[in-house]
Design a protein that fits this description.
The protein contains five helices and no strands. With 167 residues, it is mostly helical.
Length: 167
Amino acid sequence: IIPAHCADKRFSYEALFRSVQFCLIDNVCGEYGFLSHFFRVRGEKAQILFAEVMERSLVLIMKSLESYMDNCYDCVCIMLCAHIVMRYHELMKKRGFGALVGFHNQLLQQLWPRFNYVLSLSIHSVRETDPSNLKELDTRPHFITRRFGEFYSAIHTLNDKFPNDQT
């Protein structure tokens, strides 16, 4: 997403999250290469230098995610963000670049507990629903059934090609 071209559009959080992650990975690869060549460092020294240079940017992204997740009750959004992180983590592994492994793990450590919490709230909400308080009888499938079907379909679709033991 290029802000100058999209000033009048609104985007979902997961679309913005994906854009930030893509930009981060693109910049990180270039920055790591520059630091390695300019300062003539390799291995652990390059990792330490890279961590010093990128620390503030990574912390900013972490704080932004934490701030949003504190008020997020959308399981599908949280799941999409987790899958975005896992897919970009796999991309970085294919490129042979391990400098963001810790960062990706921290993102997932923020996302999975929130996903579990929001999912448990949803389950509790369904269990505690009193059918007698719902509107009059309808011939269509019940709205809770439809919502659960849509939710399950989204989770199943996300995990279909990228299975994860946590979901």
